[in-house]
Amino acid sequence: MRKLVLLVPGLLLLLTGLLAQKTTITGKVTDEKGIPIPGATVKVKGTKTGVAANNSGEFNLSVDAGAKLIVSAAGFTEKEVAATSNIVITLAEDNKALSEVVVTALGVKRRPKELGYSVAKVSNEELTNGRSTTVANSLSGKVSGLAVYNVNNSVDPSVKITLRGYRSLTGNNDALIVIDGLPMPEGGNGTILNLINPNDIENISVLKGGVAAALYGSAGVNGALVITTKKGSRGKPKVSYTHSTNAERLNQMAQFQNKYGSGSHYAAGFGTGGWKPNYLDRMHDNWRSYENQQFGDAFDGSMRIAGRVLQDSSRNMLPYSNIPGERERIWNTGLTVNNQASVSGGSGASTFYLSYENNLTWGIVPEDKAQRNGARFAATTETGRLKAGFNVNYVQAAYDRTTFDFYNETINQAGNIPLSTYRDWQHNKFGNPNGYYNDYYTNPYFRLDNERVKYQDANINGSAEFTLKLASWLNVNDRLSAMNNSRTQKNSVGKFIHSDYAKNLAYVPAGVDQGDGKGITRALTDFLGSVSDNINTENILNNELQLQANKDFKDFSLKGTLGFSIYDRKTKSVSVGSSSIVVPGTFNVENRLGNLSGGESNTEYRKYGYYGEVQVGWRDQVFVHVFGRYDATSKFFKQTRPTNMYSYFYPGFDASAVVTDMFPSIKGNVLNYFKLRVGYNKNGNDNINAYGLEPTYPNSGGFPYGNTVGITVGDVLPDKDLRPEFVYSFEVGGEFQLIKNRVGLDLTYYNQRSEGQVVSVTIPRTTGYGTLRINVGETKNWGYETDLKVQIIKTQRFNWDFSVRYSYNNNKINSLYKDVSEFFQAGFSYAGAFLVKGQSFPQMKAISYVRDSVGRIVVNKATGYPLNNGPLKTFGRTTPPHILGAGTRLRFDDFTLTTNWEYRGGNVMYSDLGRQMTFTGSGKWTEQRAPFVVRWYRQICTK
Amino acid sequence: MVTGHSHLPARFSYNFNNTNFNFWDNWYDVLEDFQYAIDNADARGMPQFKGPSKIMKAYVFQQVVDCYGNAPYSDAFKGSGSITPKFDDQKAIYDSLMVLLDGAITDLRANAFTGTSSGSDIVFKGNTTNWIRFANSLKLRVLMRQSRVASRQAYVVAEINKAAATPEGFLTAGTDVKCNPGFTQSSGQTNPLYANWGYSAAGAVLALARFPRPTTFLFSQMIAIDDTFRLKRIAYAKGGENPNNSGVSTQPEILANYVGVPFGATSGYLAQNTSYIGPCFITKAGYAKDVYLMLGAESFFNLAEAKVALPGVTLSGTAKTYYEQGVKESFRVTGTTSDPATTILVNGKQLSDWSVALTTTQQLQTIWLQKWLALTDFSGLEAWSDFRRTNYPNLPASAGAPVGQALPVRLFYPNTEEATNGANVKAQGTINVFTGKLFWDID
User: Fold this and answer.
1) Is B25 within the bounds of a domain?
2) Contact at CB, A832 and B419, closer than 8 angstroms
3) How many CB pairs under 8 A join A and B?
4) ipTM (interface pTM)
5) Of residues A292, A594, A823, nearest to B187 (C-beta)
6) CATH number, span A2-94
7) pTM for the structure as a whole
């Protein structure tokens, strides 16, 4: 009915417009204080006529009588007025961005100005502008302090998301992911974020620090990403369909040497009889047709055999020269095709949202593929005092990947091998494992085909929410959320038995065998096939019951919440397997030789908490927020322990003041808005695995043998007094809107102090254990964050935004454990991550060589081997202190161009791939072989 | 070349560092299990496991000392009570092991195995008498190792006499210390030697089966005393085992087909032209063979040496009977009958026929060589320790070593211990593996 009523004045306006005559009017545009707004746009409604105000804010314009003017200016709310002469048009400042509501911890909605801590909101539009099909990649580079680490980039990418760097020494540093109120389990980031459709997300609130996420309890100690999904909005149903196709190509490869071919250390060694002084002579003696190492003689373009003579007497004769681009050619172009449709709408008191998505991915690793099908349904309704809503998301995803390290083995093969021609190993006899040239590595395409993992995820998650209005100022709200994920997985290795000829008789022909008669006997191991089946299920249930109050008294406003939370997570996994199969190609554990292997694991974790918060506002300018939570966790519970070892209370407060509202006189053309905020809290953290208090006694290797049982003392020794960690977070910051709200600046300083982090450290085996799980002394983590957003150009048709985000993060270990000053955390014997008292963590230490005054490596004069400096040398921290992100967005009418860019630096890393490429001699840094100088080390360890 | 397998060039050229040969971590891991059993056996109502656990702890700890010298003993296995265990003097550990073994014998006498728990004893099936004999023979091993140190001889003699005076005595003829948890034809459950150097559970030859080969030096020592009997048991003819005829070589088993490889050679010796580890250790489908902890032969050779070198010992037998029994035990365990043993015992060669070994030096050399041969592939570590103690036989250095290379006399403390217990490792001084002799290695 309302529509009809609106139509009538519209028609009248049109009629009068047709009959009217033109007159010239003058006017002035000012802000609320009467200060002129130069450059304001004044347009005649319904026409293309318009002018810009001059430096005094004045304009004149020819209009038809009775016309309407539309007046706009950057940073101000658009206004429509009747066109009369000598008009003064006052525009209100546009604080829309500042009055929007953000979702804070536990779903509590607040206006940004009320918050005493840093929150970033990522809208659906910002999230999906790159059309990435995973949420994690969609977030990359868009929020200061947030880092998305790609752990691997397969068709089932694994990511790690951290906020404000590394706080925990060895435990979980991942941000908590909350989807519609359901906290997802730690370490599960990759899985759930791979399953959710970015388009279904209404927005993400990024609660950066411990203060912001305090009410989530321990899980929130690293900050949180609070994801709110779409629920639909009232109005005409909106149907949308989106298709996107993304192609993905290998961007960069390691650098390879292209001068030397197959060979190993066959030449007589330094210090032994027969050693040849000319390195080229030694390289010549090193050459072997079947080697994966590349210490043979220099490529010379001659035709040489690769590998051995095949059973049919054929020989794989190849030009002995590097094939440019071959190592890139073996990869595929990846492709992601995404189709999705959604319907949303609502009428009366109800809204709904329905979506379906299909996503298909073909990886850059040949044969790898994945698909995802998901549907979401959400609805809300209101009746009388009751508001209810629910949403449910069901996703099926299937992945088919190789378990074989294709990258590693393909980069470690000589440059003259036409690897890409061996793709069809069933038909190309030189690609077949019986005829493949290499004695140590089988054709990577064969292994790619032969070693597979296939798994399916079925995930259902959702929540139901009820709000009952008890009084105008009091609500009771309950939200029950649940997730069930089940994964069925099958790992398989096909059976392949090499021919007797390949195993025992294949030979290197005389003349090119370098003196071994018929070449050394090769070490071909048959693939006996294996199959392993795993089923994992995970059930999470979370309930939040809240009493919410909201009341204003004169100058004061009061908002408060009392809540009770219970969280339960159960997991179960069962596996069965066999390491040999009988009938090739049938991957069923019944088709086996020997005993069935298997295992089972069950965990259950429960936590409950009471919490409360009160926020007092004064004149909508100053807000003080006090909160506290009491938690009890099963992870630290034992019958014999006192209550305070598994339950704990932690309080906090934050405050914000809108300084420009308190002292309006400081507001001007430059400074439009200034808010100051400060927050401090304590947080308890139960950051250990379920049952982490108990020593374990697993089966010893091979046991049980029939009825003979063999149990061994587990490697990990938990300290018997292990208790939860406490984290004290502080942050202070300011938010500025400058130059007619065209420039937004957000500055934050924060620090966190952790007492008693739970850390597993390597201890000497002579203690009887390999790992000790303890509370360490004290660590600190601090940093700065800067967010700058600039609207460079803002016109009706053309917009240009630019944003820069910089964050600095550092940390330090103040004390460790007892009088220990250093712990080995993880890594190899020759390079590893260490926790060192008084330094930032983790610190990388690695073997270093003795060098002379000009940096050359000193070698043992008897053996020729480099001398090392003994104890490992410290190279620096492994996590980046500096993260710089920048983005720009150009919009012209309906076309938008967005770019995002991120830099992380200031850290060191150790690349074990570099070590392997040195071992095989494929790295570019091994190319200069004349002088005996090892150059690779500096390359991979430099800052 | 593939990383991580046995023929790493740096090792063949004796270019060792503290990342090589880390037996330390595994041994201490296993020792913790024995310590746990010792500490908890009474409380759990299973006191019969205490004695065997103490014996096994002593057995492994002697290996720790024989490889590394000083090591954490009194301060070890305390968990968080001492996360940087202090090192004990090697000699003091040796003495502690004797006390530990005395305790083991007392425990074994007090707590016999019950019928049901006998099955849990994968070594002697609940026979406590044999456990006590093992304890005494292990004492003998510990004592004879230090018997060439003049200042220790009185102690050694007294302790041997104490062990000899026990009613159980030492390991008797026909008894080896071996275990078998129930190896079966299933992956991960086959004999570890078989799984490492032999075949997969399904019977496929493993790639690594071709790498360990008998040395020319070993063959020359055996041929010099006409011992082709054991030679054909500890080696296959060139080309190895016939996959279709378990335990039998592919090539005819004539002496000419037994070709060794110079120790440390990395190329030039094709598998089909050289011998493999023999049928006494690896046969196709022989996945259930026992694992040997100590040979009866070794105990007899130790008794023979004690009789020759330590005049004060009160052992009932003669050096000759102990020696000859040792040789016969060795023939038995390699799978030959005692008749060929009798042949080499009277062949008129000094290194096998006792009647030709006239001087003390000759007698010791004869015992040492035969012990070294007997230990072949049964216990490389024991053979190495005895070689360091006796300098006999005159082993060549690796073919890959520089001319004039000294042989190693100990191992480096592993980098894992150094990374986590640095101060205590440093307190042991700079380790030189070519000159840093252990206390019992006098020359």
Assistant:
1) yes
2) yes
3) 190
4) 0.90
5) A594
6) 2.60.40.1120
7) 0.80
